Fold:
Amino acid sequence: MEAVNAIGRRKSAVARIIIKEGKGNITINKRDLQEYFPLQQVQYLIHQPLIAADAENKYDIMVNLKGGGVTGQAEALRLAIARALATINPEVKEALKDKKLLTRDPRQVERKKPGRPGARKRFQFSKR
Structure:
């Protein structure tokens, strides 16, 4: 098997990955997964597609992450891994679809409007 490229996006985060056969190492921006994402909940989020596809220690994943915060980056990475696994093994696609791991979350931050402090918030009203 040769390397497979995939991309995942969430909010303003973009994850580009290269996945190939290996021992299960995940390298993010030249750092280890546990170093880049120290929280267990976030690590579990990233491992979800690998668990669903029963491929936890089969592939080495090299990741280039940019933009967004911790949650956005983790969910972008999760989508990229799920897409790559579906490309490698089409039989796994149904299991990933059932857990909604192949769906791109389209929600974005709403832009700030002129004359207001935020997207929808208004300045305090003063009668006098």
